[in-house]
Amino acid sequence: MERKMKEVIKLERESVIPILKPKLIMTLANLIEHGSDRAEFVKLCKRVEYTIRAWYLLQFEDLMQLYSLFDPVSGAKKLEQQNLSPTEIDVLEQNFLTYLFQVMDKSNFKITSDDEIEVALSGQYLLNLPIKVDESKLDKKLLKTYFADHPHENLPDFSDKYIIFRRGIGIDKTTDYFVLEKVDMLIGRLWGSLLRVTRLDKIFARKPRAHKKDLKKNDDLNSEEDQDDLFVERIRLEKMDLSVKNLLRKTTIQEPTFDRIIVVYRRAAPKSETERGIYVKHFKNIPMADLEIVLPEKKNPGLTPMDWVKFLVSAVVGLVAVSGSVEMPKADLWVIFAVLSTVVGYCAKTYFTFQQNMASYQNLITQSMYDKQLDSGKGTLLHLCDDVIQQEVKEVVMSFFILMEQGKATRQDLDLRCEQLIKEEFDESCNFDVDDAVEKLEKLGIVARDSLGRYFCVSLRRANEIIGTTTEELVLKAQQGVMTNP
Description:
Elements: E1 7-12, H1 21-30, H2 35-70, H3 75-82, H4 86-106, E2 110-111, H5 114-120, H6 142-149, E3 162-176, H7 179-198, H8 201-204, E4 215-216, E5 229-234, E6 251-265, E7 279-287, H9 305-327, H10 333-372, E8 373-376, H11 378-406, H12 411-426, H13 434-444, E9 447-449, E10 455-457, H14 460-467, H15 471-484
Antiparallel strand pairs: 1-4, 1-5, 2-3, 3-6, 6-7, 7-8, 9-10
Helix pairs in contact: 1-2, 1-11, 2-3, 2-4, 2-11, 2-14, 4-11, 7-10, 9-10, 11-12, 11-13
């Protein structure tokens, strides 16, 4: 089965380092020549992690304490015990959102923009139904108030009701026969031909959505201006040449995925009640074209008004064509049969396609609840807090290693060297966050700048002396002492 044209989505490279921290540290340590220096480096990595964890401890504790008041399960009772006024509660929930957005930023999550949403939903993958959010069931005050005080660029249109954070890009492939989908496409193309012959295509034509810059359909991806971007190919049935011959062949389709998705929203409260619960849901490996499955408060899908119009128009077209053929002096039965078959086939195609899509929709929703939903509420926040620490430790360790092994560097050179090392040693690509890394290194006191603005680091032994023995090390020594002394 041949594809008509490659469909490639251009995305910005992620800032997150896609390497497990233990693997990163041990790989870097093994690149150090002397064994004693390797031991000092591993010790430094542990002290860096303990120190960074301590820096964030109070902030994370405040975040968790605030969320306990807005947990949809138990937050209402805790708010009653606090005996707070509505104004005080408003202040606390805005403080929670401020902490949450800071943690999301530190964990390299980005708010999805309208352009990204439009690119993601410009195609179909496994979900082929129009899914819409029941906005009457969502609160419109919480996020609107936050963004009024904390302006963000390129916010999506729905940002007053819910917000979608995304991080990481992956690939999802599905291989199947897709018989019904292929039959549906063939009938759809036949219907399109009939509309063009009857000149009704202008009535049903939809205006194509314009994508500003993110979606490219071009086989030539080697231009210099695109070297810093990530290109992911989307393979869809709609873009393939279909024939009766390959209807029974297995076909592989491919869709880029958002590796992690976090959705934040609040349900609307009944008129006689006040709703304070804030929902934080965490998903993994969500195909871009099926992004609707993570939307909150989805309406049950059904036949669209356009589908009903098509039903009526197709019936009218069929009756007119048949009556016209019958009134002819020599009625051509084959023409009548062809027209009726096309009309009936289209109506049957619409009905059975809807039933098939409904079954697929229910399966996808079930899968998103059991397989793709990682956690929600407090569990998601705990995961984010640990994720922030892991990412920052990796950034600091990588930057210090480069300065230690390759000498002085400007901020830009350090950024490029870190990205190059990640590519060479781990075959991974990322947009390294050098600004945050050098800020932490300077705060630790183990990196400084010379008169030319270049960064340099102290020796490994001196770096360990500057940070000093951490509380965690003292506890470990005490535990070892208890174990060795009966």
